[in-house]
Amino acid sequence: MTNKKSTTLKRIWGYIGKYKALLLFVFICAIIGNSLAMLAPLMVGNGIDKMLGENLVNFSLLWDIVFKLILIYAISALFQWLLSVVSTKVANEIVKDIRKDAFHKLNKLPLKYYDNSSRGDVISRLTNDVEAISEGLFQGTTQIMSGIIIIIGCFVFMLMISARITCIIVLLVPVCYAIAATIAKKSATMFQKRSQSIGQLNGYAEEMISNIKVVKAFGYEDMAKENFSKMNDQLYVYGQKAQWYSSLTNPTTRYVNNLGYVAVTVVGGFLALSGGLSVGNISSFLTYSNQFAKPINEITSIMTQLQEALASAKRVFQLIDEEEESDDSQMKSLEKEGKGEVVFEHVDFSYREGVELIKDLNLKVSPGNMVAIVGPTGAGKSTLVNLLMRFYDVNQGAIYIDGIDIREIKRDDLRSRFGMVLQESWLFKGTVAENIGYGSKDVTMEQIMDAAKKAHAHSFIRRLKDGYDTLIEEDAGNISQGQKQLLTIARAMLLDPPILILDEATSSIDTRTELKIQKAFHAMMQGRTSFVIAHRLSTIKEADVILVMKDGNIIEQGNHAELLKKKGFYHTLYHSQFAKEK
After folding, report:
1. CA 377 to chain centre
2. Under a CB-based contact definition with an 8 Å cutoff, are residues 364 and 431 in contact?
3. Cα(49)–Cα(53) distance, rounded to whole angstroms?
4. Kindly report the CA angle at 21 between 20 and 24, in degrees rounded to 5?
5. What distance in Å separates the CA atoms of residue 300 and residue 293, rounded to the nearest whole number?
6. Please, what sign has the CA dihedral across residues 188, 190, 193, 199?
7. Cβ distance 365 to 378 under 8 Å?
8. What are the residue ranges in the chain where pLDDT is below 70?
């Protein structure tokens, strides 16, 4: 645990090191601001000693001390303010860098990471955990820097006044540290578990909220509440224990310091009676002893936030340390006008080790062919698309485009050759025009409208309140599922890609519009290699090649008429869909 903590601190220090100049300024402000403030008790003690008794007060010296105190406190306040402002800036800059690195990492992670991770947990790492780091850094920067200076300064002033009484105060420091360290070990574990529980709870809540229609349709509300309550109760337990352990630090260390304060008062009183100390010296020493203990108490009190920040930092760094997609900067680029030939050669693939999905797949797609892929659920249809676009890499064998192994091609260059329309349409919060133009550079409104017309989306877009400038809400809640899919089809048509992938692209569209879009797709497919995954077999009759997949293998291959003549698996699938018509 110690090694992990030191590694996390080292990683945070790597981010802090970028702002050494600002940190130096913060340190200077802390020195000036706190040093001036520490002069005040000594001057107050001197002022007390100037009041010897009735009619024995040196007012000229007293007024001189008062004016100096006002000036000292004003300058000290200015530097304390600068300390707070600049340290806040440093903390925010550091957190900005961490958040930027974490988000950039998300763009470099393979699809496998997202398939195996909860979206809510990933979001929690970028928001809650990063915010916890921010709060911990701000509190730590200001209080620890100021605390160290105050402890050293007070120690020097106390030695100047009385070395004997100073020994009493110094002996209490290791006691306070031992108490704080013991409690910190207990609370660190609880804070780490609390951060994990927050991620799990966010993931479950995001899952339930984004699929609330399904939850209600299947009457899962009570079970969802029960599951949420279990997670919430677990989070409560971890949070309660973490806060309970950390809350012990401040009162226990204050109790020890108060005992020291009492001892200083008693010993100081005896020294004053014996003439070893003046009343002003005792007053100054009591103030310094209180100031000496205060930063120790404050530092131990912010252990809660520091422990939470370390636990959160560990989770964020776990994300940043995830294995990225392999570097492809030195890979080949495809020719601008490639033929579009696609070859699968002895391909083996499985999502999980030991669970075989595709075994020894061989397939050759000629340039410009329309390839339809059909088969039962789990046959491996969408997996072919994942492999073709290198969302996943094959375990064995190879996939070639125009004779080049796709593992030797830059991913961006490879994926730029594909236009893809998925069954699950995705739109972001932005205008209709921005959503259609997503992924296309330097496109005009005329080109966007032309793509929308080809996708038969233009008519419904014109009926929207602001037409192409209509703002699509988060999760596209202000348009229907079918309209969302039309916009994603328009997006693919605007790209005008060499290779098309249509994965149930018209599943949410009415039959009449689907027929129109099919014509637009067929016109777009002319001269292009295209892969069409479809459950409605009526949409793929004109495919050059139909691949029938089952259990990761191609069991039948041919055009529509040829496969019907074979009276095999495709014949059964086709006639099961059109039994009523027959």
Report:
1. 33
2. no
3. 10
4. 85
5. 11
6. negative
7. no
8. 1-6, 49-59, 138-139, 141, 213, 250, 261, 272-276, 296-304, 334-338, 474-477, 505-509, 516, 523, 577-582
Contacts of 517 (CB under 8 A, 6+ apart): 455, 456, 486, 489, 505, 506, 509
Element (H, E) at 531: strand 529-533
pLDDT by residue (tens digit) across 521-566? 776 777 788 888 877 777 788 888 888 888 777 788 888 888 888 8
Single-letter amino acid code for the residue at 475: D
Reference 149, options 29, 297, 303; nearest CA is 29
Residue pair 135/309 in contact (Cβ under 8 Å)? The answer is yes
CB 147 within 8 A of CB 298: yes
Tokens of 572: 């059964």
* Inter-residue contact 75 to 36 (CB < 8 Å): yes
Nearest Cα residue to 141 out of 11, 5, 19, 292: 19
Place of tokens 């107050």: 44
- Give the whole-angstrom CA distance, residue 43 versus residue 69: 8
Q: In the structure encoding, which two tokens stand for residue 100, read together?
A: 């930027």
**Domains, the chain, ranges and CATH?**
2-320 (1.20.1560.10)
- Which amino acid would we find at residue 75? I
Question: What whole-number distance in Å separates Cα of residue 77 and Cα of residue 70?
Answer: 11
| Partners of 361 in beta bridges | 347
Length of the chain: 582
The dihedrals phi and psi of 469, each to the nearest 5 degrees, come to: -95, 5
Sign of CA dihedral 130, 135, 139, 142: positive
Whole-angstrom distance, CA of residue 121 vs CA of residue 335: 41
Position 320, amino acid: I
Judged on CB neighbours under 10 Å (0-12, 13-18, 19+), 502 is: buried
Residue type, 143: Q
Measured in degrees and rounded to the nearest 5, phi and psi for residue 466 equal -115, 20
Are 370 and 408 a contacting pair, CB within 8 Å? Answer: no
Expressed in angstroms, the distance from the first to the final Cα of the chain is 70
Q: Do the Cβ atoms of 367 and 339 come closer than 8 Å? A: yes
Cβ atoms within 10 Å of 449's Cβ, excluding its own: 20
Cα atoms in the 13 Å half-sphere on the side-chain side of 136: 22
Q: What is the DSSP letter of 456?
A: T
Neighbours of 263 (CB within 10 A): 16
Q: For the segment 370-408, what is each residue's pLDDT rounded down to a tens digit?
A: 888 888 877 777 788 888 888 888 889 999 888 888 888
What count of other Cβ atoms lies within 10 Å of the Cβ of residue 53? 6
* Inter-residue contact 400 to 425 (CB < 8 Å): no
